[in-house]
């Protein structure tokens, strides 16, 4: 059963004349008759009472037309909804992002974007790295804001921000008065690490591997605020970005002497998947934002 057959059927039912219907549909009368006969054969029942070229719905036809009209109306509504959702001026952008980024970065991006795109809506999902990766891979979100290290070959990537990483200690720690520290100064210190479902884990592991120096975690926390809480309690030291939600009273942020210690956060999407016009415009906005920031330096 084809969509055109159903459209032809409703036109004939409305005009009750094969020739008039064929003219309205801009097809030949034999082609229309063939399409209606094929539909009736598929259903196994006649739909019309025929009197020459004049036709009238029979009992079965009236029942069937009611459901066909509803089905075609629903299809049209679905088409309109899809068009509205994907419209770059009025669409919905589906984004998943790491929990910690919901404190400052993501709200700021949305606020700034909606200044010039007030009718665009956002469908947001936040969670740990495992949660949002699954959400993204299943196609529930168009875009993902995360650490660079979580990208793979079929992902496209645009940097949003690079945040310096610091060695973080409690204000009672002997290192609290230091103006800077080397990673090697942490040897023997209890270290508060991160479990693999935290987006910063891969970044820190990669940076340590580049220095050739590794620390064994005394504690592995589920998320960054928990790490900050352990440090405040004097249970160890760690490496963290200086972001809202982590800057607790009783913590001291010491610059790292080694170069390259920064957390790169960006926007990623899959190049093998359809991206709506609304999402594409947001990607272009992030890209333009980066170009503008670079030109001002």
UniProtKB/TrEMBL annotation:
Stored Pfam families: HTH_1, LysR_substrate
Spans traversing the lipid bilayer: none
Domain named HTH lysR-type: residues: 1-58
PROSITE patterns assigned: HTH_LYSR
A GO molecular function held by the record: DNA-binding transcription factor activity
InterPro entries (alphabetical): HTH-type_LysR_regulators, LysR_HTH_N, LysR_subst-bd, WH-like_DNA-bd_sf, WH_DNA-bd_sf
Keywords: DNA-binding, Transcription, Transcription regulation
A GO-annotated cellular component: cytosol
Origin superkingdom: Bacteria
Family: Belongs to the LysR transcriptional regulatory family.
Name of this protein: LysR family transcriptional regulator
Phylogenetic lineage: Bacteria, Bacillati, Bacillota, Bacilli, Bacillales
């Amino acid at each position: 059963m084809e969509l055109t057959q159903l459209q032809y059927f409703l036109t004939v039912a409305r005009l009750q004349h094969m020739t008039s219907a064929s003219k309205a549909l801009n097809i030949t009368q034999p082609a229309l008759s063939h399409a209606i006969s094929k539909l009736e054969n598929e259903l196994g029942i006649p739909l019309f009472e025929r009197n020459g070229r004049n036709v009238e719905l029979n009992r079965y036809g009236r029942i069937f037309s009611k459901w066909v009209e509803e089905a075609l109306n629903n299809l049209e509504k679905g088409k309109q909804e899809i068009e509205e959702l994907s419209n770059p001026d009025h669409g919905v952008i589906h984004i998943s992002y790491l929990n910690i980024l919901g404190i400052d970065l993501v709200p700021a991006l949305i606020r700034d974007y909606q200044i010039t795109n007030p009718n665009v809506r956002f469908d947001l999902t936040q969670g740990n790295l495992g949660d949002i990766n699954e959400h993204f891979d299943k196609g529930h979100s168009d875009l993902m804001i995360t650490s660079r290290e979580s990208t793979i070959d079929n992902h496209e990537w645009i940097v949003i921000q690079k945040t310096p990483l610091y060695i973080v200690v409690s204000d009672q720690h002997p290192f609290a008065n230091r103006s800077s520290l080397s990673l090697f100064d942490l040897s023997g210190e209890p270290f508060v690490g991160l479990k693999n479902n935290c987006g910063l884990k891969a970044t820190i592991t990669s940076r340590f591997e580049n220095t050739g120096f590794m620390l064994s975690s005394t504690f592995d926390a589920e998320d960054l605020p928990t790490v900050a809480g352990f440090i405040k309690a004097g249970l160890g030291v760690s490496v963290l970005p200086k972001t809202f939600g982590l800057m607790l009273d009783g913590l001291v942020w010491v610059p790292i002497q080694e170069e390259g210690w920064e957390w790169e956060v960006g926007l990623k999407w899959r190049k093998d998947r359809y991206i709506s016009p609304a999402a594409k415009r947001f990607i272009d906005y992030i890209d333009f934002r980066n170009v503008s920031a670079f030109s001002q330096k």
